[in-house]
């Protein structure tokens, strides 16, 4: 199966026909910052589960329902809310979602019972994901064709950094002022972000002839069936994020056994910022028609990363190198994937992003389940073999589905 010509970089004719000037650097940075702060809300809870269990008088097993509720909200957002960006004026939609997200964060901060907490967490996952993925689609729609990959890459780098920093920030605020302060501060950050977003982001009118909401959601099945680029890049994303979660889900087990604290383990995620920033440049290369070459390099790095990671028990320096390689390869592939799928139908950017991220969700969940099972069966070497196997499978899928001639085709 070969992707259609829609995977190519924007044509010169398309670029000449689009009269829009490049987005100001400050606007691109605002997209990145807003995307990072939005996604962070979804991940603040993970270091706080012990505190939540204590305050609400529930067991360690039951408190996992907090994360489950948040992830359920993420899935619902991808199916029901993110596609709205192809139906409504984007800036107005973003403002409504921002208000709803602030209300959800305040609900969590004030929760006194488990049902209220779970409802608030569901709403945080719902609105945090809708904001994050909506902003990426917004950025793609606002950018001219010749800079779309660069702009999406910057926004996605913000998401990746926000995800990595969320756990560290959450733990620090909780140590200083308790877990409720985490969500109070998060609500204030969203409030401080609201005015710059409203004043600085470009107005994006609703697409002409946009279908009604029921048809909009139903059309996602049509897009998935017709867009070969989405199918291929979605499968690559599924395998890549499975490899990611194979590593991150199992990492805590050997490090805790070695006596490291949760704070120290969480700090390893900060190393991934290096890879996120470097990988963001992949969007520029995709704009230049180098999408397939970037994909090959990214998948090669993803596979190579498992060699130093397998030496973790002998050297923490090897672990750090492996994390950088894993995050660099993964981020470069993620940015390239999104750049390529958005080139086919820019008017359906929200639905395409939502469908692509559903592949991500499936891969992440499968990787986490397989990782802990592998570790329980044969320890860290089994985890690394599993991760390398999935990464190799991703590379083989790319090789089998690359366009005829490969090379610089985007």
Q: How would you characterize this protein structure?
A:
- It is a single chain.
- By secondary structure, the chain is mostly helical.
- It has a single domain (5-401), classed as Up-down Bundle (Growth Hormone, Chain: A), CATH 1.20.1250.20.
- The chain is 78% helix and 0% strand.
- It is built from 18 helices and no strands.
- The protein has helices at 12-17, 25-43, 49-56, 60-81, 90-110, 114-142, 148-177, 179-200, 213-226, 228-257, 262-267, 272-279, 282-287, 291-304, 306-309, 316-344, 349-378, 380-401.
- Helix 14 packs antiparallel against helix 16.
- The two termini are 16 Å apart.
- Residues 1-14 and 406-410 have low confidence and may be disordered.
Précis, in short:
With 410 residues, the chain is mainly α.
Number of domains: 1
Largest sheet: none
Mean of the pLDDT scores? 80
Termini gap: 16 Å
Q: How many beta-strand elements?
A: 0
pLDDT < 50 stretches:
1-14, 406-410
If you compute it from the alpha carbons, what radius of gyration comes out, rounded to the nearest whole angstrom?
Answer: 21 Å
Number of helices: 18
Structural class by secondary-structure content: mainly alpha
CATH architecture: Up-down Bundle
> What is the CATH C level class, in words?
Mainly Alpha
Element order: H for helix, E for strand: HHHHHHHHHHHHHHHHHH
Residue share in helix: over 70%
Give short descriptive properties of this protein.
disordered C terminus, 0% strand, Growth Hormone, Chain: A, mainly alpha, 410 residues, 78% helix
């Amino acid at each position: 199966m070969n992707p259609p010509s829609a995977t190519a970089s924007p044509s010169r004719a398309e670029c000449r026909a689009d009269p829009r000037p490049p987005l100001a650097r400050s606007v691109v940075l605002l997209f990145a910052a807003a995307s990072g702060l939005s996604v962070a809300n979804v991940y603040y809870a993970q270091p706080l589960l012990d505190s939540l269990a204590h305050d609400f008088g529930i067991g360690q097993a039951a408190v996992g329902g907090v994360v489950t509720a948040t992830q359920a909200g993420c899935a619902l957002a991808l199916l029901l809310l993110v596609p709205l960006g192809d139906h409504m004026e984007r800036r107005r939609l973003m403002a409504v979602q921002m208000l709803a997200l602030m209300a959800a964060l305040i609900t969590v901060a004030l929760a006194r019972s488990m049902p209220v907490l779970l409802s608030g967490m569901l709403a945080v996952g719902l609105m945090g994901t809708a904001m994050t993925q909506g902003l990426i689609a917004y950025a793609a729609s606002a950018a001219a064709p010749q800079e779309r990959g660069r702009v999406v890459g910057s926004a996605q780098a913000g998401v990746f950094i926000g995800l990595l920093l969320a756990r560290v920030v959450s733990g620090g605020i909780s140590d200083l002022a308790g877990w409720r302060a985490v969500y109070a501060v998060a609500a204030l950050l969203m409030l401080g972000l609201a005015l710059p977003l409203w004043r600085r982001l470009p107005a994006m009118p609703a697409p002409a002839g946009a279908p009604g909401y029921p048809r909009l959601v139903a059309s996602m099945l049509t897009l998935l069936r017709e867009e070969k680029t989405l199918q291929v890049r979605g499968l690559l994303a599924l395998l890549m994020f499975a490899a990611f979660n194979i590593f991150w889900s199992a990492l805590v087990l050997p490090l805790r056994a070695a006596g490291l604290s949760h704070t120290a383990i969480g700090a390893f995620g900060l190393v991934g910022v290096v890879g996120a920033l470097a990988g963001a440049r992949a969007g520029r290369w995709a704009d230049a028609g180098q999408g397939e070459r970037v994909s090959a390099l990214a998948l090669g790095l993803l596979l190579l990363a498992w060699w130093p990671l397998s030496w973790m028990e002998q050297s923490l320096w090897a672990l750090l190198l492996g994390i950088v390689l894993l995050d660099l390869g993964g981020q470069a592939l993620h940015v390239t994937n999104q750049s390529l799928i958005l080139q086919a139908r820019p008017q359906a950017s929200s639905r395409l992003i939502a469908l692509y991220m559903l592949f991500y969700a499936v891969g992440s969940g499968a990787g986490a389940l397989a990782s802990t099972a592998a570790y329980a069966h044969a320890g860290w070497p089994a985890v690394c073999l599993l991760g390398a196997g999935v990464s190799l499978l991703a590379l083989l899928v790319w090789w089998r589905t690359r366009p005829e001639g490969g090379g610089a085709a985007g």
